[in-house]
Amino acid sequence: MFAEVVSKALRAEELFDQVFLRDASGRLTYVVRSALSSEARDAIRAGAEGLAPWVDTEMPLATPEELFDAELGDDLPGFPEFIKSDAFTGYVRLVERRLVGQDWLRPPQDPIAGVPPITVFASHKGGVGRSTALAVSAAALSKAGYNVLVVDLDLEAPGLGAMLLEKLPAYGTLDYFVETGLGEVDDAFIGEVVASSELAEGGQIHVAPAVGAKSDANPQNVLGKIARAYIERVDDSGRAITFLDRTRKLVTRLCALNRYDAVFIDARAGLNEATAAAILGLGAEILLFGVDTPQTFAGYRYFLAHLQRFRPEASDENDWRYRLRMVQARAQANTTSEPNFRTHAFDMFSDTVYDEEEGIEEEAFNFDYDDVNAPHYAWPIAEDPNYSEFDPFARGEQLAEHTFDRAFGRFIRNLRDMIGLTS
Length: 423
Prior knowledge:
Rossmann fold; 15 strands
């Protein structure tokens, strides 16, 4: 409704020169970045009067200087937002201000220079075997002689430490984020965030668990640390250092400790701030785990629809959309399970990040239903009762190739191909 008010007061080209600002409480202000006539200003003020509390009726329009925010005067702040409603249909430019979740407003980052291929294991909901698949894959690569770094970013449901380590390092990733919310940490601290897994064979598995030995010995402090882990720090120049920034730095510094062939990240389930850092912040291959239920595709649809805002140019060599891949967890042993999942995934991607085939088809991000290289063409992990309770220290056979090959064999072969470990 506010866009309708503004659009009636301005010429079409003026509308997109300015910016809608939504503050942390959800209240809107129209940011004037170029000269507007007094008639247009008066019309916007008059039209905004009936839109409280969703519009700041005391200051429905303001300049960047009046808002004490010079960034609002930058070229192309925010992102294009498509509105479709009875009142207004079209694009406007929107800047969001959030107390939390600011990393979700940043476009997908390019890969980190100088580190091995990174793969993020993500899921909309827990309980789909995401962490189990990561642990089995790390063990399989170590048996083949590769060195793998595993980083647990699931701070609120930590599990990889208990899965892969009998002896925890002094600190975990939770401690890293709490400490870097206050200032930088030294190399000695980083060295105590990671430990070598006793389950490795041939190659190494180094694990940075969410919770380290010191927190494990003082469990009453863990919830307080989680509450502080996401707090942003401001550096000497006034720039906010977000959770995403600190995640990139953590991975970079951990990779400097040893030679790794692959980095696996266990992401927080859902649409948490830590999820944004893992999925958007690392320039990684993103594996989206799910089972064939409506909840899976509803949740991922919200995520992918948000990512449409960052649709790259056709000439972009680092098109982040090619790094997405669905994984079908608990796939059933029948002829319809995989096609049904693929159909639902195809519909979801077609409704969100796939391009419509317009112009030069070769430049469009679009795939046939049966294209095995398409993000919607899921890698299946078969339902297997041997992994309903995963405890590789108590049940060593769970990491034996003849046991895991039935459920995870195709997945691991696809994973190795994707990150280039085919020899």
